[in-house]
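Budget justification note: compute hours in this period were largely spent on complex prediction jobs such as the one shown. Inputs:
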Amino acid sequence: MVSYPGYTTQEAPLRGRSSLIVQLIEANLRSLNDPVPVAYGEKEIRDLSESVSLINENLLQKQTAESLETMLQGMATGAHVIQRSGFPGSGAEVYIRGPNSINTSHKPLYIIDGFILKSDLFESTLSEGTPFNTLVDINPEDIESITVLKDGYSSSTYGSRASNGIILIETYKGSQGASTLDLSTRFGLVMVPNNLSLLDATQFRSLISDLGPPPGLMPFVGSDAYDILLNSSPNDRFDNNTNWQDEIYQQAFSQNYHLKLKGGDGISRYMFTLGYTDKNGVIDNTSLSRLTSRFNLDYQISSKLTFSSRISYTNTNTSAHDQGSSIYNPITLATTKAPILEPYDMSSLSHPLDSADFLGKSNPLAVIQGLENSNVVNRFITTIAIAYDLTPALKIKSTFGMDYFRARENRFIPSQGIKRYKDRINQTSLQVSKELMFNNETVVQYDKLLGYAHHLNFVAGFALQTNQFQSDYGSSINTPSDAFTSLGSGAIMDSISYAGGKWNTLSFFGNANYIYNDKYYLSANLRMDGSSRFGENNSQGYFPGVALAWKLSSEPFLQDLSFMNLLKIRASYGISGNDDIGNYSSLAYYIPANYQLMGGYRQGNLRNPDLKWEKTAQLDLGLDLSVLKQRLTFFADYYIKTTSDLLTYERIPWESGYDYRIVNMGKIENRGFELGLVAKILTGDFKWDLGVNFSKNKNTILELPDGDVIRRYGVFEGIAREGESIGSIYGYKVLGIYQTESEIQLKNTGVDPSGYGYEAFQPGDLIFEDRNEDGEINEKDKTIIGCTTPDIYGGFHTTLQYKGFSLFAMMNYAYGYEVVDGLRTVLESMSNYDNQTSRTMDRWMQQGDQTDVPRAALGDPSGNSRMSSRWVEDGSYLRLKTVTLSYTLSENIINKTFLRNLTIFLSAHNLMTWGEFGGYDPEFSTNTDVLNAGLYYAGMPHTRMYTAGLRFGL
Amino acid sequence: MRNIKTIIHLSFLLALLVSCSTWLDVEPENLALKGNLYVSEEDAFASKSGLYHTFGEIVEQRFVLGEFRGNLVKPGPGARQYHDIMDVFKHNIQADNKYASWEIHYRLINQCNDILEHIHQIPDHDAALQEGYEYQFALEAIFMRCYTYFDLVKNWGDVPYITKASQDVSQDFSVAPMPADSILEQLIAQLSLTHEWSLKYWDGSFQYWGTYGEDGWDTESWQREMANYGAVLGLLIEINLYMERYEEVLKIWDIMSRPTNQWNFSHNLTFCGSGDDWFRAIYVGGAENAGPVPWESGNTLNLVYKEEFNQWNIYVEFTSNRPQDGGEYIVKPSEAAIRNWVINGDVTRGERKSWWTDSLSFGRTDSIIWKYIGLDTLGTRRDPYVSDGNVIIYKTHNYSLQVAEAFNRLGRANEAIKLVNEIRVALEIPTIKMTANSSMIEVEDMIMRERAREMAFENQVWYDLVRVAKRRRDPNYLIDLIVDNTPVESKEFVRANLEKVVSTWWQLPYHVDAVARNSKLTQKPGF
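Corresponding output:
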């Protein structure tokens, strides 16, 4: 072991060499000797045969995220991270090396301090489009490092749950030495997004005039209502020019506090943290308020017996509003609401919120002020471990863990200003969800240096896990007034329901690592996973893996190249699985089917004793190169990942009494390469570091025996089709706009030219490609019109440092994919009396108009708004995500104070975004369905945030 | 130290000893595994309730196919957005129309099969289930299966005939269609079996056959919301009439109307009363608080629909023109339907009963179907989403008018006219002045007009028209009536569509997905 003040302590085994040169690396910079957590242990970067991305403390501290997975964005090769929305703490979708599955989860396996976190069973909340983010319960400031394990060998170590990749999270631990107290605080100003350009009152009335009056009776719209839309006299209550976007958005503030106390001696080491985060969203009544605490203890009971515990408790309160296609989505309401209306009823003396309008649209202000969606989450994550050294080389460790999650959600839809649904005056609902997961993992580890050249390490163990979830829901309607919001105050019980389930796993695993002479690395793994989810004929699965590495730089023929610090080639192969196949999918069971006031049941599922996990086999070839005293380190990986036995809802004859049977069939491939570069461009007083990462992934559905899978959301259609990529967009291809009747006659020779249910085309309508040339535009002419999976993604980060000053900047990007703005399909449909974007002023109005915006037509008679390439946009973007300027007081000054250190910083987030997307923001996730990825549907846009803060130690 | 070591070693061994098989056998929550059901009397009741739950899922399709293809309704303003529905109105039903799907039919059949395979094993586990009830439940499952197959045959003709419940994914579920006539023979045999059971277990004297008096339930009202022996006989009448076996129809009617046969009707077979009594007897709201009157005069089989705690009637969404109630006003009465009541001075079943125009009360400017909206017990407009929502399956008038058809076809016009007039006397409206001198066709037309007045919007009209057209071997009987009810601009299109499928008597195509999924199913020519 070699240590020197200001440099990272390094341990360098001789491994057959009589002498060696150890290059010390300055602290806070990434070095080849940094320990990297891997499955059931840790390795140094230089000794890895796996494909790994590490985000260490130094990089984590420069970010100010609310949720840990968002810190991977642009920082880890192979990880494509999409932040869901601008709602505080909304989290992100994470894809490691592309999507593997059509019908199961794409989420990686999250492991914190060796403990597998519970799955996200309770994703859906009572507010549409704002799924639970269970990772927000972990305070990012408690985290020391995040490691992404991507290759097949690593995945095989966690078997049937790891085919989406593994994210290892290590929290801070106590350290030997004097106790230290670190405090940090920051305050942020959250800025409203740029408004969409919508029609003002005059332009709106022009469009209404163009649309014309409703034909005959039309819901909500009588002839008087149309007159109101079209005309107004000065000073009447419909003579306004309201910018509804300005009405709903506000500037907001955030604050964050974190305390970390750590210390210890030769016997015990402890670390305690306390954190509080409070962030408001740019729409009223959206917020995240989180209290976190963590106590990590390592206690040496005797020279051989060690006790350790990791205990955390989090209380998270969030408030949200509906996103997506909900009729209560404030963004949809604010962008479609007629600008001639106003938020308050000025004709009344008290100026109350105006009621839902005569078009049946709620008052957006009433929604954001009165509609409540709040939830409280209490969560304990606790592990207790006992380790015993049987011999110096042989250790046994048993860990007991618990993850307890309880969420209580309230939703209240008031009557004031809100459109009623059926006979509901107002509605209140409550959902209480609980998930409890216990596990025990016992491992025996053998680690031995045999002579100078052989380093052996064996791990063998077993793991038991049980998971149970329960969710109760109730709703009632018609409370006495909007002041009564509790479930019990409703006059009529509306609905109650329950969801619950349980599943158990039992695993045995063995892992062996062998290093010869610091040159050759061999790792092998075999895991057996049994799960109650699997069918009885496949109740156990075997997941082998092997990894090899050859450190060429340790070979004599390269040792003379003094500039080369590391040259290593790697290869690994492994099999893993995805067990997210439903808890009881293999069983024949009955489901409740009540009639009147009597309980009833009927068949719910066909038995499949052969049902099993989705299987992923992955080959990884890699190269690690570090030169010039590690000032330039380069990582490259090429992988082929094939997932077979896809969980499939195979369509079967309806005569069976079922719509589908659940079976394993189909195959998907992800193939790509990743490049990572860490450069220490300048050292000395003026330091300049640069990190670059680049990932390219090509997803192909190799086999889909049951045919296309299409899933819709609004007009959007996502399709999975053999030979294509997951994330394909399905629809019609637009060729232009019909200018004349004769042009229409020429192309439309079929019986039903404009397609199923639509009226004949007219000049000003879109020309859809008639792919089968039958003279009709119908389902048979649909094709793939885009792909929402990016070709490449990654990021850059750089740090400039001069004495105490440090400037950090991070950019992330995704390139080569298409998206659909679902809000635009509403705001440019010109098919009803909703407000529209200013782009609709370019609409086709007469022959000769050169535009790509079709005519305005009430009711969209010829289907111009159907899913087509009209709605497909380039989703590529480059974002300056974080810029942080900090100043750390020099030791000379700090030594004269009572402080141990002090850093002040200013930070900006989402400062600039470059891209072609025409909506609010190119980064979004409407729901977690992989076939709906790439669809924006009026989610809260990402916000720009300016933060000021300080960190100091005592 | 040694103790600690021992504890660790022991716990390690203990954990290893946990049996894989028991640890991985997890009983589902809120679901019941096959094998855990059909073991108690309660399971028998619950299996039956599940049957009616699924039956409830079929009623939308039943309404659309039974009414929208007929001449008593026309599209409301809300229909335009539903392409599948518009195509039904236009008789342009293609293989991808959702109403050409039989998915729910077979779900229900599979459920019936499951009950029939397991119901007789229950007494082995629980002696509390009396043999009479056991067979009653079996009868209900048979009735439901036969009713569903008859619906399939009426709409699609030859269909796969399956009497075994599906078990696991390894089965080959592709089954070739069976000729419609063979299926109907099977249905008659099955339903006749239930007649034998009835004689065996109740000897014709079991007054409340089909009730669960032991539980203290309201026997009369509950039994009307379950299939009963009256419904079995009614279905036999319908199938035999469809097969033009008129003598058989009369035989069943004889059993049904025998004064001593009170098996299953609330009391005797009686006709609905006049005025509001008729309406309340068949209407769909407010039953629970309405007192005994409706239940004593209707002899109907209704299904109750509920949305959790709020009972509601799915048809209101189609018929109401109040959007704030969720009504999309998809369908409204045709001029022909209204004329049929108005010309005949039929105030009992006409305005404010089956249909209504009232521009003052609810801002309506159009006539609407009122049968499923109706009044509450106080005589005011009921709220469609907080009241009972019954759907009428069978009622006495349906049976008797079908029997009248049989009488007439057997040359017994007097008896046919008498049956029609029995209804009209009960309704306190003028009797039909027609004698046996009238031609068979004239009497039949009269009966069909009476059916149109009595059964309007109860999903019978299309099948009535098809039955009569087939019987007369005259497709134009149906085509002319339908085309008359079509707007001028669509007459040619609708006529062409109807003429295209005359050879199968307007059978629906097999749904495109049904063909794709079943390798032994071939699409009908022309689709």
